[in-house]
Amino acid sequence: MANATDFQPTEVTIGGTRAIRAPFTAKMDTYPSEMKKAIDLVKWYVGDKKLETSGPMGVMFDSWGDSIAAAVVQPLSDQRTFAANRMLGFANVPQRRMIRFTYKGPYEGLKDAYEAIAQYLTEQGKIASPADLSKRTPFYEEYVTDPSATPSGEAVTNIYVPA
Fold first, then answer.
1. How much is the mean pLDDT over the chain?
2. Which of 102, 118, 135, 138 has the fewest CB atoms within 10 Å of its CB?
3. What is the H or E stretch that residue 12 is in?
4. Segments making up each domain of the chain, as ranges
């Protein structure tokens, strides 16, 4: 298993931007398909409305465990307003201090990356034990490379956890 220091942990400020978000809930076994549906919906809406984006798409996790509550988030520079519905909405993402870990590798390896991050945060005294990582929400995955278009082994994902 990789060591989290391999992921170049760096404290940064993120947010302070407007975003379109597509919330979803899933169980661990349905997470990949539910996330893909939400990504496809956001991509379609951004293209249909010709919205200007201001950074990579990602997923903001509100809870993680037996059930996952998350939202696909696409930062926007476009300030136009459109009606929200139960599948899509707009939000101002507040600024917050986070620790960014850059993971390079297949999406299937993210579980190992999170285990290494949990161990690192435990060693740094930021959480009591690796099991506490799921309590540090919201955390965020930013897809530097497009998950739907990048071969899995070439993927780059920034993982942000509260500082």
1. 86
2. 135
3. strand 10-14
4. 1-15+96-135+157-163, 17-93
